[in-house]
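Hey team,

Filing this mostly as a record. A colleague (T.K.) asked me to run one chain through the structure pipeline before their review meeting, and I want the input and output archived in the tracker in case anyone asks later how it was produced. No errors, nothing strange. Just documentation.

Input sequence:
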Amino acid sequence: MKKGADHKPKRHDAERLEQQITVLTEALQRERADAMNVRRRSEEERAKMGSFYKAMVISELLPVIDNFERALRHVPKDIEEHSYIKGVQGVVKQFEQSLAKLGVIRIKTVGEVFDPALHEAVSMEEGVGSREIINEELQSGYIMGKEIIRHAMVKVKMEK
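Output structure:
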């Protein structure tokens, strides 16, 4: 009789231990999943912050590019081929290449249909038609991924 009495508590202890193992295993799996979610959210936040600061730095540099381009539009004819002017053109080209490497794209303007999500209309010329077509770019706009860094400032005309 002693043997049977010893046998039941051992079976009961083993079942209790198996339940504890199951509970602890499930808790460990939940903790692992939580840790993975925290890591994933942290990486997403870091990426968002990186994009935010990259866009902020780029938006601070855009006026420099604007000024270089304005200067190049007003170069006197007699010095267009001067090496100094060629050097400034090279700087502008290098800026554009650097922006492209960062994923920054210039927003298309002249000849395009006006899109208020991309363009900021400074003036509207009357014309014949029902479509708003951009006929002049006053300041370039830039986009990085899906984020507008700066809207393009444009003049718009009604056309067919």
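Quick notes for T.K.: The mean pLDDT is 90. The helical segments are 2-73, 83-101.
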